[in-house]
Design a protein that fits this description.
Elements: E1 5-6, H1 27-40, E2 45-47, E3 57-61, H2 73-80, E4 83-95, E5 99-105, E6 108-117, E7 120-126, E8 132-138, H3 139-152, H4 163-177, E9 187-188
Parallel strand pairs: 1-9
Antiparallel strand pairs: 2-3, 3-4, 4-7, 5-6, 7-8
Length: 196
């Protein structure tokens, strides 16, 4: 089932996600619905808060980046099959020299900005079967994870912009929260005027 994506301005996007266990109700259905929602909106990752559920869960499928000519052959090969579920994740380490990449977000449509992130991470998480993992990721895979991880911490990519950039996009963000944006996927807007 395709769920509506929560738009910028909704308080759920600012909540730190709660830890869950294997008894969380209808978790398999939620994960399946999140994948359906992500694919329907042409995303490469989505976090539970983006569908209105403030828990520590996000998913990624980086296969659309497998054809990116700016990446090495090795990176493309890794991203081709990079599809994962992250539950109760904690980034243990971020290292390396920060690099910029133009990021966007399904909750903040039509806004793209360069965001600086470190290229290497070590992350501890549980998969959909609650098996614990500690893995190291680099490059684009690390960046996608960092972006989605921020969501379960109540952080948006726009928080990482300079004060000037934030001022320049303030009007766009306000319009998004009011539903004044054209998207081709289902969204839930916190400040949209109700039709009578």
């Amino acid at each position: 089932m395709i769920l509506p994506i929560v738009a910028y301005g909704d308080p759920v996007l600012r909540k730190k996600g709660t830890i869950i266990d294997k008894d969380y109700p209808k978790l398999d259905a939620l994960i399946e619905n999140m994948f359906d929602t992500m694919y329907a909106s042409s995303g490469i990752g989505i976090a539970a808060p983006q569908v209105g559920v403030p828990i520590r869960l996000f998913i990624v499928d980086a296969s659309p980046f497998a054809d990116d000519e700016d990446l090495t052959e090795e990176e493309c090969k890794e991203l081709e099959t990079f599809k994962k579920v992250f539950i109760n994740a904690t980034i243990l380490e971020e290292k390396g020299e920060e690099w910029a990449f133009n990021e966007g977000c399904l909750s903040i449509p039509d806004v793209r900005e360069d965001v600086f992130r470190q290229p290497d991470i070590v992350i501890e998480y549980e998969d959909e079967n609650f098996k614990k993992h500690t893995d190291t990721f680099s490059g684009m895979a690390a960046r996608i994870i960092q972006h989605e991880y921020d969501h379960i911490e109540g952080i948006l990519f726009t928080d990482k912009l300079s004060p000037l950039k934030k001022r320049l996009i303030k009007g766009k963000l306000s319009n998004i929260s009011k539903g004044k944006v054209g998207v081709d996927y289902r969204m839930r807007f916190p400040n949209a005027k109700k039709k009578r």
